[in-house]
């Protein structure tokens, strides 16, 4: 049977810039993907004992960020999510997440995210996402009538 979701626990590092100390602290993250929500990749961050903060970002944005040349000054995204390669370490990629309560900058292993992205693309190839959405259901949720 073909799986309909991907859930991969990974480790990220949080850039702590409080005061003058800048250090990377390990952070447990679950990267998730569902075939019935094919445009989004979830990042679930453990911020306390059984306390999680969940972010959704566009799968295409993640792909574009991973496609950037390592050690370049380029970045993708604007607004709440920005992805950029590390300037010094080619194996690392940064994902910056901003909300009204603050901004977090997280370092991930590029190869790990690339493998997860490849798994999502094997599940739902890029360009075929719209065929996986139950549009009648989505219209009904919005309060309209399905055609």
UniProtKB/TrEMBL annotation:
The keyword Cell cycle applies. InterPro entries: SsgB, SsgB_sf. It holds the Pfam family SsgA. Belongs to the SsgA family. Keywords: Cell cycle, Cell division, Septation, Sporulation. The keyword Lyase does not apply. It is found in: Cell septum. Gene3D superfamilies: Sporulation-specific cell division protein SsgB. It comes from the Bacteria. GO terms for cellular component: cell septum. This is SsgA family sporulation/cell division regulator. Its main location: other. GO terms for biological process: division septum assembly; sporulation resulting in formation of a cellular spore.
């Amino acid at each position: 049977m073909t799986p309909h979701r991907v859930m991969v626990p990974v480790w990220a590092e949080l850039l702590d810039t409080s005061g003058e100390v800048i250090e990377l602290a390990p952070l447990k993250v679950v990267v998730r993907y569902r075939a019935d929500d094919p445009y989004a990749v979830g990042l679930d961050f453990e911020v306390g004992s059984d306390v999680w903060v969940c972010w959704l970002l566009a799968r295409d944005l993640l792909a574009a960020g991973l496609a950037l040349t390592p050690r370049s000054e380029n970045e993708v995204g604007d607004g709440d999510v920005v992805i950029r390669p590390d300037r010094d370490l080619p194996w690392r990629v940064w994902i910056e997440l901003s909300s009204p309560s603050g901004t977090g900058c997280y370092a991930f292993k590029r190869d790990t995210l690339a493998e997860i992205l490849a798994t999502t693309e094997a599940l739902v190839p890029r360009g075929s996402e719209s065929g996986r959405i139950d549009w009648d259901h989505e219209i009904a949720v919005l309060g309209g009538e399905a055609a």
